[in-house]
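Usage

Read records sequentially. Each one opens with the input sequence:
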Amino acid sequence: MSHSPRDAQAADLDALAYLWWSGWRDAHLAIVPEALAKLRTQDSFHGRMSAALPQVRTLGPVGAPLGFHLIKDDELYQFYVAAHARGTGAAAVLIADAETCLLAQGIQTPWLACAIGNTRAARFYEKSGWTLARVECVPTETSAGLFPLDVWRYEKRLA
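and closes with the structure output:
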């Protein structure tokens, strides 16, 4: 991977929002409740990315990101890699960057939520040293308020 992780910039917004929306649909459309899927419009991802942009780290050229991560407190809250960048090493670079950022914030045992049935992501997290801790119901943010969703909770001891 020739690109180093960097802070997202305003010029990345549209591409990151599209990457998140398309990645979410690719990984989740067939496995989450229909009521949640209906709330996951392209506009909803644009609004969420716009609000989160100052906390987003990405990889790739400005305006053409290959993936991103978003940390919220002690959670690796969002982690996506563009379909065309899968298998290139981008995900490994991004997750290492996320872990470095978490540790720099003093978080020694972060967690992440993985949709139950998202086996591709689960295999990647496990290969990256994350451990399935339990099934947990998380309040998932939507335009209509919080949506309770059972997820696989992964954790990793960083220090």
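Summary fields computed downstream for this record:
- The helical segments are 13-28, 34-39, 42-52, 90-104, 119-127.
- Strands lie at 6-7, 56-59, 67-72, 75-81, 111-115, 131-142, 145-155.
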